[in-house]
């Protein structure tokens, strides 16, 4: 297989038509092609303060509203979200069912030009990549640190972390070495992916596990590379279609969601084919200031939008409703 080389540079709103008010008249914007995959559903700007000591039990709000300042990372499971807020220097635990929010733990790991990577386990413990502190940390469901994963020679700037459901390993993507380090459950480095075959990865910006393997967002090469268990490339996604990719998510059916800073759009791919491009610059529902991170949970896609100080929640249509976007 030939090594992967760098390429040259080459909104839909909701499926319902958007509307804008101008000089007393209502103008409806027709839906753009290919936007049936994603639809705006909910905007989260914060929540009612909940006592952090009892945030896991049903309770009345303990105070007024708390708003996100600069959300740069998001993880979701059921009705629970973790939101890394670089402006407030805290990771919030947000309960969507109660619209309640409480501090989960402090957050000092944000670095320029990179969103935060978080993952929630099935027991609501969490893994967080902290590139500024040079390690990945696991917290229990109450936000107390449990274990750290660090390897200075192989991963001096960890920016992405993914953990399979069985927790048999922890995969850490490093921005400095363009490698993926595989750790065992006790925190010991076991192997390196992408480091022994030159040209496989030029950078690591985000990662996600999916049906075909490990999906790695290579921001420098402007593409997503799918690696098998041995670290060999299986597929390249987004070639000639991504300009400034930043965030990544993959659903159970194999659809790949990639945000692109060029126009603040989320581009959706299947088998290398562009299905939809959704969004655009702005602050209306379905528009984004700066997409820092994506997180999928079931049929919901959570979008951390740092400039608009909010998390946008998008409905993801089932694969049966896919309509390929026509060539441009």
Structure description:
By secondary structure, the protein is mainly β. It has a single domain, classed as 6 Propeller (Neuraminidase). The protein has no helices and 28 strands. A 6-stranded mixed beta sheet has the order 5-4-9-8-7-6, with no helix packed on it. A hairpin with a 2-residue loop joins strand 24 and strand 25.
Question: What are the SSEs and their pairings?
Answer:
Elements: E1 18-22, E2 25-29, E3 38-44, E4 46-49, E5 65-67, E6 71-77, E7 80-85, E8 90-95, E9 100-106, E10 118-120, E11 126-130, E12 135-139, E13 145-149, E14 158-162, E15 170-174, E16 179-183, E17 189-193, E18 206-210, E19 213-218, E20 223-227, E21 233-237, E22 245-250, E23 256-260, E24 265-270, E25 273-279, E26 291-297, E27 300-305, E28 310-316
Parallel strand pairs: 4-9
Antiparallel strand pairs: 1-2, 3-28, 4-5, 6-7, 7-8, 8-9, 10-11, 11-12, 12-13, 14-15, 15-16, 16-17, 18-19, 19-20, 20-21, 22-23, 23-24, 24-25, 26-27, 27-28
Helix content percent band: under 10%
The average pLDDT score comes to 85
Number of strands: 28
**Helical region count?**
0
Structural class: mainly beta
H-E string? EEEEEEEEEEEEEEEEEEEEEEEEEEEE
Globally, the shape reads: globular
- Strand line-up in the sheet with most strands: 5-4-9-8-7-6
Keywords, please?
disordered N terminus; six-stranded mixed sheet; mainly beta; four-stranded antiparallel sheet; Neuraminidase; 328 residues
Task: Report a brief summary of the structure.
This protein is mainly β and 328 residues long. It contains no helices and 28 strands.
